[in-house]
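Entry 14. Structure prediction run on the chain below.
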Amino acid sequence: MAREKKDHITPVFGPGSYRIVFFLFLVALAAFVAGLFVHVTRDASKYAAIAREISETGDFINLKINGEPYIQKPPLLFWLSALSFSLFGISDFAFKLPVLLFSFAGIFFTYKLGKLIYGRDTGFIAAVLLGSSQIYFIYNMDIHTDTLLQTFVTFSLWQLYGFLRTGRNRHILLGFAGIGMAMLTKGPVGVVVPACAVAGYLVFTGQIRKMTDIRWYAGIALAIVMILPALAGLYNQFGWEGIRFYFWDNNFGRISGNMVSRNTNFLFYVCNLFYLFIPWVMLLFVSVVLQFRQLFQRRMKPRDWYVFSGIWFLFVLLSASHGKLPNYLFMVIPLFALLIARYVRIALARRDGRLYRTFQGIQNAVAALTGVVVLLLVFWLYPVREIWKMALLASMIFVAVWPFLKTTRKPGRLLIPSLSMVITLNFFINQHVAPQIFSDQAPVKAAAIFNREAMPGEVLGNYNYPSHELFFYSKVPAIQIFNDVELLERMKKPGNWILTNGETVDRNPGLPYPGMEIIPLKHVWINKLSFKYLNPGTRESALDTLYLLRSGHP
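Output returned:
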């Protein structure tokens, strides 16, 4: 295959910008690291509890949560965190660290993919856009399997495009190894983006005969071998029903809406991009228009079909499905970053400057709006009082306006203001705001009280609270209570602590028993954050109350 021409505008940031860019890199790194220490909630708490159980039992094959067989997700995320627990102990930091390291690898793989397809500068810009996107900050603080999934999908895309260009065996082996890792992370959905990218590329470039190459099928066999540990655990605990769940129910059940809440809004993911892909979402919409214009004008090059097919087949499928969650979109975000980077590079290279001025105007407005959000956050919603934080805020604002005070290269004027503001926003979210919000969870407080006050041999239980923070933060394995009868029986015996909700306490008028203690704990539902809670004037009234029940002493 002929080598396609790739233009360069190197270096992306001029020599005068290096210190500024390095400073932004350090603050961004600090923002990511700060997110490692934020408490877990909801899905992340479940994954942390499973990883803890693996580390305590040593059973990496038969996944369990609270001693009960677990079927929902493959094991790779849990394996990595369990190994981290063995090195660093059980903590938020140890749970999240492996995912963050793989996310950094995902940024590098995006650079390599972009470099291979469009050239070094496009790859570099794509990596910058991806690593500074809101979704990257959010889902490295609040862990999902999709955080890990996108890294392996991007690695696979890079290697498989290398195979399409060179035909080298190592590329197809590594590409399918990436698919195998993606399937070990979230199941067969891990093959969708690479398969669509490759199939679309071969079909639209008239190379469909290459699908008969025996090496594709050897790669499929490699991926299947790699997922055997996941299949073994499912078969051991659920029989053939577990295998069926992995290959069918867990994927088509989500598409049909049977596995998650139903949502038929076709524009769900378009709407969610407005916050998931801050600060680059408006550039994305412009780039999509330009890509489809190129399509309708029949000016698509072979390399463009690879990116186009990798994005849009899955995006339409997700949009048409009845089960939607924002994190499902994560695996195509690197390709979105690459799409924007392609047109940013074109804008920077064109002599007339019209596209660049459009992009510049958009990003100036986005940077200004993001700056307003930062100021509202640190001066009103969650006031900052530490001098060093105020100094950092002032420095980041200076960095944002610096390109307009000094003659800099066009890439710096376009990217640095938005980079500075989104990094500032996420630094204060991860270091200042999120720790306060997530610490308002009653299970975190309940586990802290139990860990501090419980005597050896006492038991902590969970009843009618639908998440798993208690199972992760308790110093001893917590237990699940299943009905009122079991709750009341345990409350009659000494040495029992149980976290439950107000409805449970209200419908059992016999409580408290003699010597029993009922400890009210204020609670925020992270998935239902409202402006009433964020507003400091009404925050206290927005909190719910859970109750930690402590049975009488012997």
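Strands lie at 64-65, 68-69, 459-462, 479-480, 496-501, 517-523, 544-550.
Filed with the rest of this week's runs.
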